[in-house]
Amino acid sequence: MTLSKLSKAILAAIMGIGLAFIYVPLIIVVINSFNPSKTFSWPPTELTTKWWGKALENTGVRESLMASFTAGAFATVIALALGTMLAFAVSRYDFFGKNAISLLVVLPISLPGIVTGIALNNAFTKQLGISTGLLTIVIGHATFCIVVVYNNVIARLRRMGTSLQEASMDLGANGIKTFINITLPNIGSALFAGALLAFGLSFDEIVVTTFTAGPGIATLPIWIYNNLFRPNQAPIVNVVAAVLVLLSVLPIYLSQKLSQDTTSGGRL
User: Fold this and answer.
1) Between the CA of residue 147 and those of 58, 87, 118, 226, what are the distances in Å?
2) How many domains in the chain?
3) From 63, 76, 207, 221, which residue has the greatest number of CB atoms within 10 Å?
4) pLDDT tens digits, 190-226
5) DSSP output for 232-246
6) DSSP symbols for 135-186
């Protein structure tokens, strides 16, 4: 199909408008983190790094950042373990309810966050009698982080097939050696991409966290939301947001590269 020059120009204009709508506000946030004005007068008359210094000194930022990293790390570990095992079970074995399990694994990420949050809060506080805190945040995040690990690993396993594993075992290797020497190297990039995406989802989550976090525990997204409209904290919020924007670029780029179904990635 060949497009005319006018059609190409229209498509390029639409794409440019869409990208501008997404990225111009992010650029403004980064610029405002250097804006000396608390009211964010635009354009900035000068640039300053004083808000960056105040952000580093802010106890709330440090504590919420540590809470987000801790929750994200543990949720990612749980998601890697459970998501990988589920992917192996579904891709390698036939059993009753296989399709239902696949649906149930993917369902949490498609549900509205508020529904998941309310359900988890009721389960923890009323059915199980557990006080909400960092543990419940980790469990809540793991419920949807499993999905991205599962999707990445099962796609790689289906592309791999079973011929290499069977050849390894025919040559005398047991199941553990076959997994370490054959399977793990081939699914390693899928695991890494899934871990990056899972950590990113956990680190950014606010709705489920609101219902599963206990008193006095605030992850970074919750801290940003609580301080966004406070005049003395708004400039620091811009700094934190700018840092998150800049730090998100590399993991997202790596996860996309590793998730691509390229010839080198699919070579067995």
Assistant:
1) 35, 10, 20, 29
2) 1
3) 76
4) 888 888 888 888 888 888 888 888 777 888 888 888 8
5) TTHHHHHHHHHHHHH
6) HHHHHHHHHHHHHHHHHHHHHHHHHH-SHHHHHHHHTT--HHHHIIIIIHHH
Range of the domain at 227: 51-266
| This prediction's pTM | 0.77
Residue 155's nearest CA partner among 199, 111, 102 is 102
pLDDT, mean of residues 117-142:
84
Token pair 């790390």 is at which residue?
73
Domain harbouring 126, CATH code: 1.10.3720.10
State pLDDT tens for residues 34-52: 877 766 667 777 777 777 8
User: CA angle at residue 67 from 204 to 104, to 5 degrees?
Assistant: 50
Q: Is 152 exposed, middle or buried (0-12, 13-18, 19+ CB in 10 A)?
A: buried
